[in-house]
Amino acid sequence: MYSAVNRAEWRTAPHAHECYELLYVLEGRCRVETATGTFMAQPHHLVLFHPYQWHEETMLSDVYALVALRFPAEFAAEHHVPLPRPGELPPVIALPPTDEFRRILDRIVAEYQRRDSYAPAMIGSYLFQFAVLLQRALHERRAEAPSLQRAQEAGLRHLLDQHIASGAPIRDLARQVHMSESHFSHRVKALLGVSPRAYVRERRIARAMELLASTPMSIEEIAGALGYDQPPSFFRAFKRATGQTPGDFRRRHS
């Protein structure tokens, strides 16, 4: 029921279970890959795999410790456990950093170890409580979603804007917010409507137009300031985006 890995490298090959698998992360980080994408699991995160949902896990820290529960769908149905339906949520869910979830899981483990005739009913009742707490936390998060989404959008824009001139790879930006590159790209696309590369490309061109129209900087200086390795790369990108060369744009707007 409790599990910890402290090897230098650890991963599971793609696999699936006939039952539910519920993992509550206590320590460390792990990359979780499923058919719907790549996700990062860390402390206070719940990892929930439905029956027959394939997944792959790779440890990203020195230690990865968790509480692990597996139970058949029939057990969840018998005790009316209100777990999220398949596809309703991503497999990795950030839970509030409280002790409530951990306390219930500890009670489930204690009942499992007791193994008397009352244990299945007690485990079912505790699992029901855990699922209700989960649904309440999700309901509160949905109520906060509009303001939270605006804050997340602003944070992503700030992060991407900081790197418009650096030419930093997208994977480096993803690491700063503890996401895989694919999850980061998916998150940016969901919140900003464009991929990270498209956002940076558009912002670079917009900034180039400002500098061309309002400063005496040479075109080569502008190209360098915006992270282009060579001026010809800037010329091609600018003309592809605007239909004009940088020089033509400057002459029209000077």
Summarize the structure in short.
The chain is built from nine helices and nine strands. The chain is α+β, with helices and mostly antiparallel strands.
> What average pLDDT do the residues reach?
87
Distance between the termini: 70 Å
Q: What percent of residues adopt helix (DSSP H or I)?
A: 40-55%
Q: Please count the helical segments.
A: 9
Largest sheet report: 5 strands, antiparallel
Number of strands: 9
SS-based class? alpha+beta
Cross-sheet strand order for the largest sheet: 1-8-3-6-9
The shape, in one word, is elongated
Low-confidence stretches at least 5 residues in length (pLDDT < 50)? none
Beta-strand percentage range = 15-25%
Secondary-structure element order, N to C = EEEEEEEEHEHHHHHHHH
Q: What gyration radius follows from the Cα positions, in whole Å?
A: 24 Å
Describe this structure in words.
There is one protein chain. The protein is α+β, with helices and mostly antiparallel strands. The protein contains nine helices and nine strands. It has helices spanning about 75-80, 100-115, 120-160, 170-175, 180-190, 195-215, 220-225, 230-240, 245-254; strands at about 1-5, 10-15, 20-25, 30-35, 35-40, 45-50, 55-60, 65-70, 90-95. The strands form two sheets. A five-stranded antiparallel beta sheet has the order 1-8-3-6-9. The longest helix is centred in the middle third of the chain and has 44 residues, at about 120-160. The protein starts with a strand and ends with a helix.
